[in-house]
C-alpha cells in the first residue's frame, strides 16, 4: 500500500499525458482570453466615461476577490441550466479561468500604461492623433514592454490553476488520477507524484525564463 | 414563498462551514508567515548550503500546483507513512501554509534585501550580532514594505482555502454545493451567496492589513502615507 508501484505508474503515464494535453489546451485558450480581455479592460478603463469604468471596476474587483473554484462551479451550473447536457466543461472551464485572470492582467496592463511618461500623452494631444492610432502606435508598444514579465507570470499561475477544474469534471491530470484511483483502489501516490513532477518540469523553466526577461526589460 | 422559507431554514447551517474557511485561512496565514520568515531569511543567507535548501523548498512549492500539493498532503502522505490523519483540516492548513509561505518567502527576502545599505553598514559598525541586526534594525524597516504584497497573498490564501473542499473538507464551498443539490434548494443561489461571503472576507483582510501597515509605518517614524488597496500587480501566486 505504502510503496511506489512501477506497474501502476506505467499504467498511469499515458492517462497523465492525455490529461496534460487537455491541461495545455485549456491553458492556451484561457491565456488568450486573459491576455486579450485584460487588454480591452485596461484600455476601456483609460478611455471610457466613469459611467462605464465604475461598474467595470466593481465587476473586476469582485472576480479578483472570489475563488475561481466557486466561479467555475457557478458558471458550470448556469451552463447546464441553459444548454442542458450539451455544455462543455472544458470550454466553460477555460472561459472562467480566462475571465478570472483577465481581472489580474488588466491590472498588469494598467501598471504598464501608468508607467508611460506624461510627455507621450501630451505629444498625442499635440499631434491630435486619432485614438486607435495613439494606442497602437504610441502607448501600447511602450506599455507592453513593462507589462510582459507580469503577464508571463500570470500565464504560469493560470497553468497551475487548471487542476481546479477537476471540480467540474475537466479531464486534466488530477481528474485522470482520481478516476484511475477510483477504479483500481490505488495509484494516487504514483499519479499525484507524476502530476507534481510534470508541473515542476514545465513551470520552473518558464519561470526562470520570465525572471531573465524581467531583468533584461528592467534595463 | 416556499423557496425563501427553505433558504432561511438552511442559512444557520453555514456557521460551521464558515468557521472551517476562516480557520483554514487564519491558521494557514499564520503558518505561512512562519514559513515565509524562515525560508526568506535562509534564502538571504551568505552560506550556500542554507540558501540552496531554502531555494529548493521555495521553487518546489511555487513550481507545482496547489491542488496537486493538497492531494499529496491529504491523500498520498498517509499512504506513504501508513497512518491515518483524522485531522484533515490540520493537514490542509499545512499544505496551504507551505504553498503560500513559499510565495511570501520571496516577499520577505526581497524586502530585507531592499533595506538601505547604510543601515547594514551601521550594524557592522556597531558590531551587532546577526539576530540583533535582524530584530532591531533590518526587519522593523523591511516589515512595512512587506505588508502590501503579503496582503495580496493573504487574499489569495483565502481564495485558495476553497480548494480544501476538493479533498472533502466541509468548508463554505463544499457546504454550498451539498446544500444546493437538495431538491428544495437552488444551487445558483447558494453559490452566489458564498461568492459574496468570500468577497466580504477578502475586504476584511485588506482592511486589516492596511491598519497593520499604518501602524508599522508609524512604529518606525514614517509618514502614514495614503495607503491603497494592494493592486494585483503585487500578486504572483495562485488563488
Summarize the structure.
The complex is a heterodimer of chains A (219) and B (239). Chain A is mainly α.
List keywords for this structure.
heterodimer, A: MetI-like fold, 83% helix, B: 239 residues, MetI-like fold
Describe this structure in words.
The complex is a heterodimer of chains A (219) and B (239). Chain A is mostly helical and 219 residues long. Chain A has one domain: MetI-like fold (Orthogonal Bundle), CATH 1.10.3720.10. Chain A contains 8 helices and no strands. In chain A, helix 1 runs antiparallel to helix 2, helix 1 runs parallel beside helix 8 and helix 7 runs antiparallel to helix 8. Chain A starts with 5 loop residues before the first helix and ends with a helix. Chain B is mainly α. Chain B has one domain: MetI-like fold (Orthogonal Bundle). Chain B is flat, with a radius of gyration of 21 Å. Chain B starts with a helix and ends in a 20-residue tail after the last helix. At the A-B interface, helix 3, helix 4, helix 6, helix 7 and helix 8 of A face helix 3, helix 4, helix 7, helix 8 and helix 9 of B.
Amino acid at each position: 500500500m505504502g510503496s511506489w508501484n512501477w506497474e501502476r505508474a506505467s499504467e498511469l503515464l499515458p492517462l497523465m499525458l492525455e490529461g496534460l494535453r487537455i491541461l495545455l489546451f485549456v491553458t492556451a485558450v484561457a491565456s488568450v482570453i486573459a491576455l486579450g480581455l485584460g487588454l480591452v479592460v485596461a484600455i476601456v478603463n483609460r478611455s471610457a466615461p466613469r459611467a462605464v469604468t465604475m461598474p467595470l471596476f466593481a465587476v473586476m474587483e469582485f472576480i479578483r476577490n472570489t475563488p475561481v473554484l466557486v466561479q467555475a462551479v457557478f458558471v458550470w451550473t448556469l451552463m447546464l441550466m441553459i444548454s442542458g447536457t450539451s455544455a462543455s466543461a472544458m470550454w466553460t472551464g477555460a472561459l472562467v479561468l480566462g475571465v478570472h485572470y483577465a481581472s489580474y492582467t488588466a491590472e498588469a496592463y494598467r501598471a504598464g500604461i501608468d508607467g508611460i511618461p506624461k510627455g507621450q500623452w501630451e505629444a498625442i494631444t499635440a499631434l491630435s492623433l486619432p485614438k486607435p492610432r495613439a494606442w497602437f502606435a504610441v502607448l501600447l508598444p511602450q506599455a507592453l514592454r513593462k507589462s510582459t514579465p507580469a503577464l508571463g507570470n500570470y500565464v504560469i499561475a493560470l497553468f497551475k490553476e487548471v487542476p481546479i477544474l477537476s471540480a467540474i469534471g475537466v479531464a486534466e491530470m488530477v481528474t485522470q488520477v482520481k478516476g484511475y484511483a477510483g477504479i483500481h483502489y490505488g495509484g494516487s501516490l504514483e499519479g499525484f507524484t507524476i502530476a507534481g513532477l510534470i508541473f515542476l518540469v514545465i513551470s520552473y523553466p518558464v519561470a526562470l525564463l520570465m525572471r531573465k526577461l524581467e531583468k533584461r526589460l528592467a534595463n | 414563498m416556499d423557496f425563501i422559507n427553505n433558504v432561511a431554514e438552511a442559512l444557520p447551517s453555514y456557521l460551521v462551514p464558515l468557521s472551517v474557511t476562516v480557520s483554514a485561512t487564519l491558521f494557514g496565514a499564520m503558518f505561512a508567515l512562519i514559513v515565509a520568515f524562515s525560508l526568506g531569511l535562509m534564502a538571504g543567507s551568505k552560506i550556500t548550503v542554507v540558501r540552496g535548501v531554502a531555494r529548493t523548498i521555495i521553487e518546489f512549492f511555487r513550481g507545482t500546483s496547489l491542488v496537486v500539493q493538497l492531494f499529496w498532503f491529504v491523500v498520498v502522505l498517509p499512504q506513504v507513512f501508513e497512518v491515518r490523519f483524522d485531522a484533515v483540516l490540520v493537514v490542509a492548513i499545512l499544505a496551504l501554509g507551505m504553498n503560500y509561505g513559499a510565495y511570501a518567502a520571496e516577499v520577505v527576502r526581497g524586502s530585507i534585501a531592499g533595506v538601505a545599505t547604510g543601515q547594514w553598514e551601521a550594524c557592522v559598525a556597531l558590531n551587532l550580532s546577526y539576530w540583533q541586526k535582524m530584530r532591531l534594525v533590518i526587519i522593523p524597516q523591511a516589515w512595512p514594505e512587506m505588508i502590501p504584497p503579503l496582503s495580496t497573498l493573504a487574499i489569495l490564501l483565502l481564495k485558495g482555502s476553497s480548494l480544501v473542499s476538493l479533498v472533502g473538507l466541509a468548508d463554505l464551498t463544499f457546504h454550498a454545493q451539498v446544500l444546493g443539490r437538495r431538491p428544495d434548494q437552488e444551487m445558483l443561489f447558494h453559490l452566489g451567496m458564498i461568492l459574496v461571503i468570500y468577497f466580504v472576507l477578502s475586504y476584511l483582510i485588506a482592511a486589516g492589513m492596511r491598519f497593520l501597515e499604518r501602524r508599522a509605518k508609524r512604529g518606525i517614524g514614517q509618514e502614514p502615507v495614503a495607503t491603497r488597496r494592494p493592486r494585483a500587480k503585487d500578486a504572483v501566486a495562485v488563488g
